[in-house]
Structure formats: structure tokens, C-alpha cells
Amino acid sequence: MLGLLFENCHEFGLSFSFENCNLNHSSFFKTKIKKTVFKNTQLHEVEFSACDLTSAVFDNCDLSNAKFENTVLDKTDFRTSYNYSLDPEINKIKKTKFSLSGITGLLTKYDIEIDMGN
Length: 118
Description:
Elements: E1 17-19, E2 37-39, E3 57-59
Parallel strand pairs: 1-2, 2-3
């Protein structure tokens, strides 16, 4: 499923869960999809701007070039996902869960090098 525009869905009763999917180039712009589970899903260049992802779970997902801007990510779980980049200054990330290896995705905008001891 490539390039789907979930932002056009009616919000009443909207609920999803995705497993082993390819959702590259899709858009969830301004959707309210709390507690959504994305498991083993490829999410390259997906638009999550202005989305409410409170308590969502990204389990083993590839978020290369996914866009998070003015996104509510409170209590969202990114611990097993990778290739994400998001700016904590323009997104809500209260009690959001990250792995130590994923912390670099929070610092991308600073263009710094982090030695992970490899």
C-alpha cells in the first residue's frame, strides 16, 4: 500500500493497526490515531505532521525520512524502531520511549557526530 492518504478518512471511529506493511509515501496529516500499532512496517517518507499519535507503538519499523512536525507523540513507543528523525522542540514528546541507539534521531538537526562506541 503505497502513497495512501489517510488524512481523507472520516475521523469518527477511525482506528488502525498495521503489521508487515509497506506504507511508504503515505500521509496521516492531521489525523487523530491514538494507540495505533505499527509492527514490522516500512514507513519511508510518511507524513505524520500535525498528527496525534499519543500512545502509538512503532515496533520494529523503518521510519526513513518520515516527517514529524507539530506531532503529538506523548507516550509513543519508538524503542525498537530505527531511521527516525524528529525534533523535540517542535513535537510533543512527553513520556515518549526511545532506545539508547535511537537517541541520535532526536539530535539530527544539530549536525553533530555521535560515537556509539563501535
